[in-house]
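Page 37, top half.
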Amino acid sequence: MKPENPLRIWQRLLHQPQKTWLRKVNFQIHLWAGIGAGLYIFVVSVTGSVLVFRPEMTRAFQPRRVIVAGSGAVLTDEEIRQAVRIGYPGYELRGIDRSGRPDAALYISIARGADKMQRMLDPFTGKDLGPMVPFGFRTVLWLLELHDNLLAGRTGRRINGLGGFLTVVMTLTGAVIWWPGIKNWRRSLSIHRGVNWKRFVWDFHSAFGFWTFLFILMWGISGFYLVFQEWLSPVVDFIEPYSKTQFGARRIDYILEWLPRLHFGRFRGLRPQFTLTFKVIWVVLGLAPPLLFVTGGLMWSNRKRESFMLIRRSRMDAKASR
């Protein structure tokens, strides 16, 4: 059997892509990559959208020295140690942070084995005033740890990098699947009216995926690069080698410098109103992958349900014909 002419394959891909094996292969890769990484992409995208405003949230929730209404002699180190023994049996005092003001709350660090805490104490009575780090600040740190390391340290960060690679794979295969042919490509840019909900989900997934393609691709590439940049350095040097006669940064270095800024939505040098506008846009665009995951899941569920109903109907017809 002679291999098919590459020119004919290319022509069919341009005009009738639904009938090409390349589209079918990309569909399977896209489907299984979505099933394997969909939940991960959902979590990372939602936390990433929230963390666009991380500087503002950090400033709003950062720990501030608490001033206590009271007077008298300030507790000595030994008295603080005694208060810790009573309030936290089994814990050991590791450190005391005193402000210059006598009426400012004392910051203490205590530990019992691997369990460590930072608390605030009344400087006059030793009464516990709560955690040293406010709940809002701790929430921001938790979201950052979840987004960067998936709450699993270095292992989680590597998984995060692989997730970025899968995002790139899903984006590129999705682009191949999206292509409806030269005659019909404009129809896939918008959502049609007067269609049933299944068709609406399909149109939404297709159109929204097209308009957010470059952003999702950028997040996938930058997410992979930020984790494995040491591995990718030789590739970068191969693309644009250092020149003995050129000093300073290369063009590709400027691109790589912008990758983290685009990834996290850090827009420096803009007027405050423009910065806020871009950040809001970044938050909305950051929710694109979760929406595509949900609509893709609905499409897959519909296909499975229709396949199940078709098999069931064929079995019933076979029994009736006996």
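Page 37, bottom half:
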Amino acid sequence: MASEKVDLYKENKKEYLATQKPALVKVGPAVYLSIRGKGAPGHSAFTEAIGALYGMAFTIKMTRKFAGKRDYAVSKLEAVWPDINCDGGPRNQEEWTWELIIRTPKFISPKDLGQAMETLKKRGKGGEVERVELRSLNEGPCVQALHVGPYEKESETMAKMCAFAEKQGLRAAGPLHEIYLNDPRRVAPAKLKTILRQPVSKN
């Protein structure tokens, strides 16, 4: 009998609970496919990196599935912004560094990554995919909130989160982390939903 399909969002649903009111959550260790870059979101380097990340994610999944190995749902796109947190960040978007990530089951290995990379190269889709790597995050306590609306107005939600953290005697302890719940190509900006996550520690 085949193993049940792994769904990381269902397994870790407490970590993805978010309303428009900031709240504290505890985020455990997790493994991600990751690709890093620099520049404004939406520019070619950013969109090409998204394509490479998803290409790798689905190739790993399908390669395992065809080999009869445990299946899983490919998770949503997320991003970590190393220069941005409650203490501020660069105003010029061209100076922003970013790390696009997709949460991945812990049983995915560097060997799985290597096999998928070779498959994509044979299909003529090398290049950017060679920059994709596996990496772990352990964010621990975080202030989290749901932002509804265009990405350009996230600063309003972030301000509420930072004020909430300050009242709790907490300070930023890592970069801003975003989880994109829908696709901006298919959803009006006013209806976009994004979980904002700020790792924190005691002052």
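Margin note: The mean pLDDT is 93.
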